[in-house]
Amino acid sequence: MSDTAGPFVPEGAGIDGLREAATGCRGCELWEPASQVVFSAGPPAASIVLVGEQPGDQEDRRGLPFVGPAGQLLVGAIKDAGIDPAAVYRTNAVKHFRFEPRGGRRIHKTPDVHHITACHPWLHAELQVVAPGIVVALGATAGRSVFGRPVRIAAERGAVLEGAIPDSSAKALLTAHPSAVLRMRGEPGYDDAYAALVADLRIASAAAG
Asked: Does the residue 1 lie in any domain?
């Protein structure tokens, strides 16, 4: 096993070639317990790229990003922001599901920094191919991968940044992960948290060009 996905990323490949090559990635240990790699969805020439943390349980089983409850919330927010979900490229900072088995269930575990670093060559290659107008980092793990540094959601969200993504001309924006909003459902602050996510997506759409 390597400690980076770099050797597994084919030079000059398009999204389909990257997706196919990712099935053989052994850049970190997460590939072994996962059901499959979960690469991306959406058009390969999108003006908006959304980057999440990692696949969840349903994503791991189905092989597609953002198809679980948090993904459904995200699709609703995208629509409420006036964006066509089919026009958005969706991917994750880490391409395999990290989990802890517990009583027959698979409980999400946040990827470590070395998982984010090991998997970053895939995201870098995706951004080179898609060449979006803006990249939206959903949550702290995605933010660390996109910006190459630790981020603070509360302090940095909603700002359109230029020159913030290493080796990319795309603008960038940080916002909350939809799972963080989903966890607030039924609580007093849920409506505000959802509205803030929609507002950030509107800002990103206007800046995408």
From this structure: no
- Taking the CA atoms of residue 150, residue 153, residue 154 and residue 159 in that order, the dihedral angle to the nearest 10 degrees is 100
pLDDT tens for residues 47-66? 999 999 999 999 999 999 99
Domain count, the chain: 1
Q: What CATH number has the domain bearing residue 193?
A: 3.40.470.10
Q: What is the pLDDT of residues 103-129, one digit of tens each?
A: 889 999 999 999 999 999 999 999 999
Residues 6+ apart with CB under 8 A from 174: 136, 137, 143, 146, 147, 151, 153, 156, 157, 158, 159
Q: Is residue 30 part of a domain?
A: yes
Do residues 146 and 136 touch, judged by C-beta distance below 8 A? no
Q: Which domain holds residue 136?
A: 6-207
Reported pTM: 0.96
Structure token pair of residue 40: 């991306």
Helix%, strand%, coil% for the chain, nearest 5: 40, 15, 45
CB 96 within 8 A of CB 37: yes
Q: What was the pLDDT predicted at 2?
A: 64
